[in-house]
């Protein structure tokens, strides 16, 4: 990556180094969600006494992530990002061990504890994109966010392959080895995170006037950006959580379900090579809207049939739509705060997004059992229409403000 011209040479060198390390750490830390999501519901079906609780482990992961966003932000502010990220990787490893023990012991409760603990690591991994974007000038933020998300492309291969390679490591305890693999990947990320060159907490504190969080949260730009992020990520989690169970329920194999998740996660992150450039050319709002349209198209394809092609094609479109929608929404959020406000606004954004994801992932399991795969996909369309209307209104409002500012 070319060093930002507006930064002094040492800062530019550190920013480039940190982006590379965070991209690598993302490729390892980002492998945990595919493992948890592709297996959480299936293991839940094996261990839970109530079938409607099958997706609870996935929901607890997302809930743990949501509840950890604010504590993780406070730790980053007090200890620095490097120390908080290292702690997150350690907890990620412990969580994988606990989940594996839950499978070995046949304990649904222990398994749920392990997936919930993984949420703190997930909160740290999700903040890598903000850590990189904070170090570069505003025009380069969307590109840097995309660079970090490229690490997820590698994670899209690693996570499902770990599932396939290790799912039968213990014949009497299927999938326990996959969660041990999750623990090992978190340990591999630890030395990369310790190599980060981040400013110490006292040096990273920014002096200046900061608006109250309630004022920022009520601003139209923030409301629309967060709503777009919530719907993009929430719908993706809603469909992705139910998809492996729906595929197995329709006669497809666990391996085919895991490969479907792999294609989905590849589609989530592969566009990151050019998403930043598309945002620079067409604008954040247009790319976010494009992502939502693709998510809606994925639902229409899922409604067209239950063959492997329909499942995999829908998951691929869902992944690309998530990439455009989520990266675009994240870039919109970075326009809503100043330097003194960024920590609390970033934490609030992730809390709202991943809190919704937790509800969506749990609700998808219940809805799959009560109403079926078609209902899950049909429900997304009205939400997408609503957010597209909000994005259109925001674009119209911004054009009016720009025209008024330019008027003599």
From TrEMBL:
List GO molecular-function terms, semicolon-separated: transmembrane transporter activity
> Is Transmembrane among this UniProt entry's keywords?
yes
> Is Transit peptide one of the keywords UniProt gives this record?
no
Q: Which SUPFAM superfamilies match?
A: MFS general substrate transporter
Major facilitator superfamily (MFS) profile domain ranges (all copies): 213-408
Q: Name one Pfam family in it.
A: MFS_1
Q: Which UniProt keywords apply?
A: Membrane, Transmembrane, Transmembrane helix
> Where does the source fall among the domains of life?
Bacteria
- Which InterPro entries does this entry report, sorted A to Z? MFS, MFS_dom, MFS_trans_sf
Give the residue spans that cross the bilayer.
21-47, 59-76, 83-105, 111-132, 144-166, 172-194, 221-241, 261-279, 286-305, 311-333, 345-364, 376-396
Matching entries from PANTHER family are given as:
MAJOR FACILITATOR SUPERFAMILY PROTEIN, MFS PERMEASE
Descriptive protein name = MFS transporter
């Amino acid at each position: 990556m070319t060093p930002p011209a507006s930064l002094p040479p040492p800062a530019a060198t550190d920013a480039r180094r940190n982006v590379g390390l965070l991209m690598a750490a993302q490729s390892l830390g980002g492998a945990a969600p595919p493992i948890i999501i592709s297996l959480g519901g299936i293991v839940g079906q094996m261990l839970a006494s109530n079938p409607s609780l099958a997706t609870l482990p996935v929901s607890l992961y997302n809930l743990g992530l949501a509840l950890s966003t604010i504590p993780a932000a406070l730790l980053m502010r007090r200890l620095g990002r490097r120390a908080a990220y290292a702690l997150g990787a350690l907890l990620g490893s412990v969580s994988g061990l606990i989940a594996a023990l839950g499978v070995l012991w046949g304990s649904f409760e222990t398994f749920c504890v392990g997936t919930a603990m993984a949420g703190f690591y997930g909160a740290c991994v999700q903040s890598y994109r903000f850590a990189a974007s904070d170090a570069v000038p505003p025009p380069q933020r969307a590109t840097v966010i995309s660079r970090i998300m490229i690490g997820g492309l590698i994670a899209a291969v690693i996570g499902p392959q770990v599932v396939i390679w290790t799912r039968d490591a213990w014949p009497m305890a299927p999938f326990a080895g996959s969660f041990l693999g999750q623990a090992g990947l978190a340990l591999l990320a630890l030395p990369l995170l310790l190599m980060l060159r981040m400013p110490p907490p006292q040096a990273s504190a920014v002096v200046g006037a900061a608006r109250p969080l309630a004022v920022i949260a009520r601003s139209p730009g923030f409301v629309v950006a967060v709503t777009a992020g919530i719907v993009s990520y929430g719908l993706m989690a809603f469909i992705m959580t139910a998809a492996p169970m729906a595929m197995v329920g329709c006669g497809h194999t666990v391996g085919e379900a895991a490969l479907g998740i792999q294609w989905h996660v590849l589609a989530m992150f592969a566009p990151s090579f050019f998403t930043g450039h598309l945002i620079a050319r067409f604008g954040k709002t247009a790319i976010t809207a494009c992502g939502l349209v693709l998510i809606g198209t994925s639902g229409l394809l899922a409604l067209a049939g239950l063959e492997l092609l329909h499942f995999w094609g829908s998951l691929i479109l869902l992944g690309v739509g998530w990439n455009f929608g989520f990266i675009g929404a994240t870039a919109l959020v970075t326009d809503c705060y100043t330097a003194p406000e960024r920590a609390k606004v970033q934490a609030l954004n992730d809390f709202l997004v991943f809190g919704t994801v937790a509800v969506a992932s749990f609700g998808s399991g219940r809805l799959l059992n009560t109403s079926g795969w078609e209902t899950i996909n049909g429900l997304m369309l009205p939400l997408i229409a609503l957010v597209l209307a909000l994005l259109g209104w925001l674009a119209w409002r911004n054009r009016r403000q720009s025209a008024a500012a330019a008027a003599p």
